[in-house]
Amino acid sequence: MAQRKITTSAPKWLTPTEMKAWRRYIVASRRLLEALDADLEAHDLSMPDYEILAQLSDAPDRRMRMSELADIAMLSRSRLSHRMKVMEKAGWVKREACPIDKRGYFAVMTPKGWKAIVAAAPDHVESVRNRFVDLLSKQDQIAIANIFEKVEEGLRINPIEEK
């Protein structure tokens, strides 16, 4: 369980500019993910399903250690396990025991999973482009990439602990 920092001083409240930036980020990111998720419904995929299939499609032999996949897809191991059960039922992935580590498993994309990602990818990319990329100038894209690189680095330095 993550430990909470206990402070005795008053919180450093957000300024109006900081609050506006924070609120805009929260609302826009949630709406964007909701829209991208809805756009994948025609393919019977959710954003987490798509992300898992995308990661597996790029992996050697379309297989990856479950622990590595959980880290890359930013899912807890229990959440990945749940998604895998759903995706196995759909026939998109299968689990294979790791011959070296008897407790470890591989997530493996099936031919049906490959067909699903190939069918969904053009629509997903169009959705990302229409709902995000094309709304931004090249300078905006560079700024956002730099901003979130800083945020990600900060989160890596002070990671949350998995429950």
Provide tags for this entry.
163 residues; mainly alpha; Arc Repressor Mutant, subunit A
Structural write-up:
With 163 residues, this protein is mainly alpha-helical. It has a domain of 86 residues: Winged helix-like DNA-binding domain superfamily/Winged helix DNA-binding domain (Arc Repressor Mutant, subunit A). Helices cover 61% and strands 8% of the residues. It has 6 helices and 3 strands, in the order ααβααββαα. Strands 1-3-2 form a 3-stranded antiparallel β-sheet. α1 crosses α5, α2 crosses α5 and α3 crosses α4. The radius of gyration is 19 Å and the shape is globular.
Q: What general outline do the C-alpha atoms trace?
A: globular
Number of helix segments?
A: 6
Largest sheet features? 3 strands, antiparallel
Task: Indicate the radius of gyration in whole angstroms.
Answer: 19 Å
Say which CATH homologous superfamily of the domain at 35-120 is assigned: Winged helix-like DNA-binding domain superfamily/Winged helix DNA-binding domain
The unreliable regions are none
Write down the CATH topology of the domain at 35-120: Arc Repressor Mutant, subunit A
Instruction: Give the rounded overall mean pLDDT.
Output: 90
Distance between the termini: 5 Å
Structural class: mainly alpha
